[in-house]
Amino acid sequence: MKVYNLTKAHVQRIRDLSGGILKLSLLDMKNLEDNPYLLIIQSIIENSMKVSIYPLKKDKIIKVTFSAFKFSNEMFARISEILQNCQLIHTSGVIIIENQLYYECYLNLNLDEAKAIGLKASLNKIKKIFKQIKIEEIGLKKHE
After folding, report:
1. Which of 15, 23, 39, 135 gets the most CB atoms within 10 Å of its CB?
2. CB 103 within 8 A of CB 79
3. Residue 63: which pLDDT band, with cuts at 50, 70 and 90?
4. Where are the beta strands (DSSP E) in 69-99?
5. How many domains does the chain fold into?
């Protein structure tokens, strides 16, 4: 069975944003001077796209994707317990595609941090109750 990505994301330097296709005003976002990067998350559904933008201090963060055929209260409790000590940036919520449930979340961690090593160990302990748990690092967009 195919595993879906609900979102696509990348990190971009704020100073590089002006060269993009979309001209966005970031003037109303608070504390941008303390955050040189932006996490840009795209959700594409049929003929529309939703874009969410979050200011970041880091140039890399972690995306975790959970997939299962049936989500249970135990799964949600375990996910909540593990993620409670992580700074959650964005979540997709639970989405059903082809009778499979997906949940994605973006965390303000990178794979080099000690907390990320603990996160991986905790997720490894619960991987048997999911079809798949995928951890990936999202970083700076390569110039095209």
Report:
1. 39
2. yes
3. very high
4. 88-97
5. 1
Q: Determine the Cα–Cα distance for residues 97 and 112; give it in Å rounded to an integer.
A: 32
Q: What is the spatial distance between Cα 35 and Cα 59, in angstroms, rounded to a whole number?
A: 10
Are the C-beta atoms of residues 104 and 64 closer than 8 Å to each other?
Answer: yes
Average pLDDT (108-128) is 92
Distance in angstroms (rounded) separating the CA atoms of residues 119 and 82 = 7
Tell me how crowded residue 3 is: count the other CB atoms within 10 A of its CB.
12
13 falls within a domain: yes
Mean pLDDT for the chain? 84
CATH code for position 129: 3.30.70.260
Residue 144 in domain: no
Q: Residue 55 belongs to what domain range?
A: 8-139
Q: pTM for the complete prediction? A: 0.84
